[in-house]
Amino acid sequence: MARIANAPRQAVSRLRRSGMPRAARPHVVPVAAELPLRTAVFAAVMDRFGAHSIIGLDEAGIARARAWVPPQRWPHTWITGRLSRQVAVTEDSFEARDGGRVGVRIYTPTGPPATTADGAPAAGGAPAAGGEPAAGGERAAYPMVVFFHGGGYVLGNTRLYDPLCSFLAEQVSALVVSVDYRMAPEHRAPRAAHDAIDGVRWVHAEAARLGGEPTRIAVCGDSAGGGIAAVATQVLLDAGGPPIAHQALLYPATDATRSYPSAREHARAPVLDARKIEVFSRHYLDSSGLAPDDPLVSPVWRVDLAGLPPALVQTADLDPLRDEGLGYAERLRAAGVPVRATNYLRTVHGFMSFPGATVVGDQARLELVTELRRHLHPTPAPALPRPVQAVLAD
Amino acid sequence: MAWLPLRTRLFTTLLDRGVRGSIIDMDLAEIQRSRAFTAPLRRPFTWITGAVPRDVRIGDAWFTTRDGVGRQVRTYLPSGRTGGQPSGAARGAPAAYPVVVFFHGGGWVLGNTRMYDPLCATIAARAEALVVSVDYRMAPEHRAPTAVHDAVDATRWLADEGAARLGGDPTRIAVCGDSAGGNLAALVCHAALDDGGPAIAHQALIYPGVDLSMSMLVREHANAPVLTQAKIEAFLRHYFGPDPQLSPRDPSISPYWRESLRGLPPALVQTADLDPLRDEGLAYAARLTAAGVPTRVTNYLGAVHGFASFPGMTLIGRQATLELVTELHRHLHPAGSPTATQWHE
User: Fold this and answer.
1) Model pTM?
2) Is B316 on the interface with A (CB under 8 A)?
3) Superfamily of domain B6-332 in the CATH hierarchy
4) Where is B37: in which H helix or E strand?
5) Average pLDDT over chain A, rounded to whole?
6) The complex's ipTM?
7) Catalytic residue among B149, B190, B305, B333, which?
């Protein structure tokens, strides 16, 4: 387990030299006025009555909050999206490095190869490469996406992400393996990251049994899960494998020092505010022995990002974590990593879990599917103009 | 029809009901009247088109085409701030802005530079660049490929002397255009590559028309709002004229049909999901990517052709503008690219 040992002070100066962090903008954006009505209403309801406010929760409360999953029926599915019918869901588990067992939830496409994400042929709608019968008549292996859910290293569960993970399995035409990593406060840092790394290794080792292709693995995660995905990618690079083809980071937590301007600018944003971040961080970091700028908990603080796999970074504009996501994208790009970053306007932290309550949910899902497909289903480049369907398949 | 936000549906219905008539049955006088139209820069119009940022100075200049005709350009210069890095010249000299050469849309027949004041001025302010919008000659008075030649000549003039005279940096030039203007912007990149210059740092193509043979026309959106197959055919009839000198697949007017796209500048391609031109834009982006050109492509859902001209009547207008200025800024200010948030509104 290689970890970059770097003096924090040196890292600070290098970060500063590479342009990050920057001074805060002077004014605070009036968040409610920036939001579409549906998002403002949803966020207000969640903040008032939602099950996932961490503040003041004791261990029993945390356990109850973790067990909560919205019912798979309307009106809930209008907000969260629905579990795809073209996907089979199974459960499994693996043994982590400390001997503990970690569950996984596996989403296997069962339907015909996806054709469209939204009706547009090229919009993630290229004919699926994985899952189609191979030359020998056998079903070819699927590429794999290892997913890490959000929840501040404390809350959340894999079932909560059934809509998103099954959507990815179906639309990317990939095997999605959602890791039920162990959480704080019972398990302090870097246990969640270690479970994530062990999870990727297990997926790689068990690929044949799962029906996956071990050479085509992407990682994906949102919020704390995005941070974990970024950390796992870094550690696996140092360890020499397994190779990661793509990292899709959704409003990731990359900086536990919260040095970026949006941490202050949007300190009172809906869904995730500075007080909740503080409580989550304490649960994860207290008595862990890790400094907040340790790359194992703050991937943006790693000095050398060269050689990391291509990345998609999606951020929410009205999110305290916005600038640490964009900052990580900017640092990756400066290190020569192919990066696509999109800052979604008029939305808040966590929006991929409630796409129906936003106006950008479908657009963001389309982008995520398109990027994962592009990196997991590489096809030979066309040399000459060809009829459109053939070209779009590229 | 596919999903379209209510405000977009209402606005495009009004637009198509013929406030300004349709190209299909316009004669030359009507075309010329239509070209003269611009929406006033005051509310409620700016709710639809977007406003012109106050700290941008709008001016004009002239250049001479290869056939000796003087044509006008409309210039948008940010004021107040300095344009990034000094352009290599003497230290202490005033910093020069990078240049965005802009080509308006309108099927090579309609449109004018003033109509694009909100978009061009926004690019100037947020991408911190001198924007030069070219008043290229249009059909039916001037058939293909006059518009292409004017676009190429304007870009050459800027690189040679125009940029420096207007406060721009001739070593950092990007091209941008929407619809027919996207076609011209792509072709300027081809010409620059073939002629060995000027160096183009970035091409931003907004729902571009890249295949004049219409082989990739999206059939299910052939009767979409704003732009229909019948209108495209009418535009092309004007552009080609009764006695076409060029095949619709001639790469000098149809960028998609160029043999090799290798070596072209980094690209942004934005398409509208409910646009008959969607698939040719996406296909061109796919070919650019396959040719090793760093390409960012985004297909905007719930959007129709022309959305950059009426961002306020869409749900994705601000998002698309942010992407456009972010990409232009990143490629025109390579040394000091700030985070996207610095220009967010």
Assistant:
1) 0.89
2) yes
3) Alpha/Beta hydrolase fold, catalytic domain (3.40.50.1820)
4) none
5) 85
6) 0.90
7) B305
